[in-house]
Amino acid sequence: MATYELCELFGYTKQAFYKRKKNVRTPKYNSELLRSLVVTIRKQLPRTGGKKLYVMLQDEFIKHHISIGRDNFLDFLKAEYLKVPKVRRYYKTTNSRHWMKRYPNLISNLVLNRPDQVWVADITYLRTKEKTYYLHLLTDACSKKIVGYQLSDNLMSSTTVKALEMALINRETKNQLIHHSDRGLQYCSKEYTDLLKKNNILISMTQENDPYENAVAERVNGILKEEFGLHEIFENYQNLNKQVTQAITLYNNFRIHMSINMITPNQAHQQTIIHLKQWKKINRNRINSATI
């Protein structure tokens, strides 16, 4: 059947057919090369998503004369089975049923714009074949940098204090700082709150059983587990501790974030002002409206 008859059959003009044919371009990249570039990054950051990979590979694209748009790159990842599946897990580490003093939420309407403005604290569980361990974390809410941590086999406030002490040692400014956490007994303890007050840090806590009230801390927990393999069951404490140290180093120095305009937490933490990217469709408090 002639080209003219085929075009007429499907309701197209011959001119439209040839124009479309002219605009169809063959991909300007070598699939094997592109795959190897992706795999190279995934060796260090195994669960990095497609949009972030696209930004991180821009220099390699220029170096190897690869011409590919973001949507085509995402299609390539899907075709090559390189997309990362999402996994949801939950384990309760907070005990808010206690007699100790609770503090109000100071950040519900706060606009984040600089490092050392708000630190968010949380605890997540990790496992070995022998027992369960707990990772006590402190993260800068604006730069997303993990500023303090402690791995332990207990949920004692003295262990949580060690993570805070690390963050205080590494604190780079003396600007007014707010410490935000859930109402767990570790954060309400006299030992912990006294250390915050001694360093002139304001104390803020969640008011409801809503994870969005401490969304940044919850998200960092998820990233460490799902993107850096901390959800695995490790052979022993030594292996787990080594993986935690490596994961936090990679997270702070190499893992880019959408909300801080595709730079790393360490890079963001060096800035005086940070313009967080906002997503209006998320109807939550301002401090929780930026994903990472």
List the helices and strands and how they pair.
Elements: H1 3-9, H2 14-23, H3 31-44, H4 50-56, H5 58-63, H6 70-79, E1 118-128, E2 132-140, E3 146-152, H7 157-169, E4 177-181, H8 185-188, H9 190-198, E5 201-205, H10 215-228, E6 233-234, H11 237-253, H12 265-269
Parallel strand pairs: 1-4, 1-6, 4-5
Antiparallel strand pairs: 1-2, 2-3
Report on this model:
- 40% of the residues lie in helices and 13% in strands.
- With 292 residues, the protein is α/β, with parallel strands linked by helices.
- It folds into 2 domains: 78 residues, no CATH class; 153 residues, Nucleotidyltransferase, domain 5 (2-Layer Sandwich).
- Strands 1, 2, 3, 4, 5 and 6 form a 6-stranded mixed beta sheet that branches.
- β2 and β3 form a beta hairpin.
- The longest helix has 17 residues.
- The C terminus is likely disordered.
Quick tags:
alpha/beta; 292 residues; Nucleotidyltransferase, domain 5; 6 strands; six-stranded mixed sheet
